[in-house]
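HUMAN: Please help interpret these C-alpha cells:
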Amino acid sequence: MKSLINPNQQNLVVEVQQTSFELAEPLFWVDCPDNIVAYEYTYDGTNFIPYAPVNTAEQNKAKASQLLSDTDWTSIPDVANSAVSNPYLMNQSAFFAYRSQLRAIAVNPTAGAIDFPAKPTEQWSS
C-alpha cells in the first residue's frame, strides 16, 4: 500500500491506495501498512502516528460556551433553596466552581488541547 503525505497539513496521510502516481511537490508517497487510513494518521518520516487534530481557540471557546449553556439551570437561585424547592440541588457550589473554570476558557480561549474541568454529578436532596 501507498500513503499520500501532505507536508502542508502536518504530514497528514490524505490518501491510501495500491499504487502511486505523479504528484506536484511538496506532496509525496511512502509505503505503508494495510491498516493505515487517510485522515487518521500522520507520518514522522519513519512511523505512522494516529492523528490528533489541534483545536483552534474558537473551537475551544465554542465547547466551553456549550458546556456553560448545558449547566445554566444550576445557577437559578431556587434550584438549591430547600425552602422553595424539594428536591433541591445540594452541591450548587460545585457547579459554581465548574462554571467559573469554563467561563475562564470561554473568555480567554487558547488553541490546542484543553483539559476541560469535569462536570460535577448532581446531588439532590431526598
